[in-house]
Amino acid sequence: DAKTTQPPSMDCAEGRAANLPCNHSTISGNEYVYWYRQIHSQGPQYIIHGLKNNETNEMASLIITEDRKSSTLILPHATLRDTAVYYCIVNYGGSQGNLIFGKGTKLSVKP
Amino acid sequence: DGGITQSPKYLFRKEGQNVTLSCEQNLNHDAMYWYRQDPGQGLRLIYYSQIVNDFQKGDIAEGYSVSREKKESFPLTVTSAQKNPTAFYLCASSIDLFGPYQPQHFGDGTRLSIL
Question: Taking the CB of the first residue and of the last residue of chain B, which one, N or C, has fewer CB atoms within 10 A?
Answer without folding.
Answer: N
